[in-house]
Write a structure and sequence with these properties.
Number of domains: 1
Structural class: mainly alpha
Number of helices: 6
Largest sheet: none
């Protein structure tokens, strides 16, 4: 009987440890994904502008004559007019813009949470303006290690907003 209890205890211990490792991995993944999203922020803003220009171009000149995106409308088995293809392209681009604007709004809300933090500007400088830790330390008049430490702390706070309890270690 003692060996069975030991086995059950071992199973419980192994399960608890596996759960802890999984939670730690999830928190690390949330941190990494938060950084990816922060680095992508300025690029997504540019993408939105570019997509709006594409819509203006399609509206003014119609759908391009040859394009991979047009092929999907022709493969559906229905022959669409150039105007219908242009409208479908514009609808697709508008859907992408909406998705990207939602991401921008989400990041903006997350960054608003740290707006009152003494070192909150580190996020903007590091991820949105691509400044180095040394450049940021000069701007904020602090040591580069202070920049790195507070950047990690702030990204951790943003991770919790973006991913919830999964981001907590």
């Amino acid at each position: 009987m003692a060996s069975k209890r030991q086995t059950v205890k071992e199973i419980i211990y192994d399960t608890v440890m596996a759960t802890r490792r999984f939670a730690e991995r999830e928190a690390k993944d949330a941190f990494k994904m938060t950084e990816k999203r922060l680095y992508a922020y300025p690029v997504i803003k540019l993408k939105i502008e570019d997509d709006r220009e594409r819509i203006d171009e399609i509206s003014e000149h119609g759908a391009p004559g040859k394009s991979k995106s047009i092929l999907k409308y022709r493969r559906m088995g229905i022959r669409l007019t150039q105007d219908e293809i242009a409208e479908a392209l514009i609808n697709d681009i508008n859907a992408e813009i909406a998705e990207n604007e939602h991401e921008i709004e989400t990041i903006d809300k997350a960054v608003d949470i740290i707006a009152g933090d003494t070192y909150g500007d580190i996020i903007r400088y590091k991820y949105f303006e691509s400044k180095s830790d040394e450049q940021i330390s000069e701007i904020l008049n602090c040591d580069p290690s202070t920049v790195r430490r507070n950047k990690s702390r702030l990204v951790g706070r943003l991770s919790v907003f973006l991913y919830g309890a999964a981001a907590v270690q």
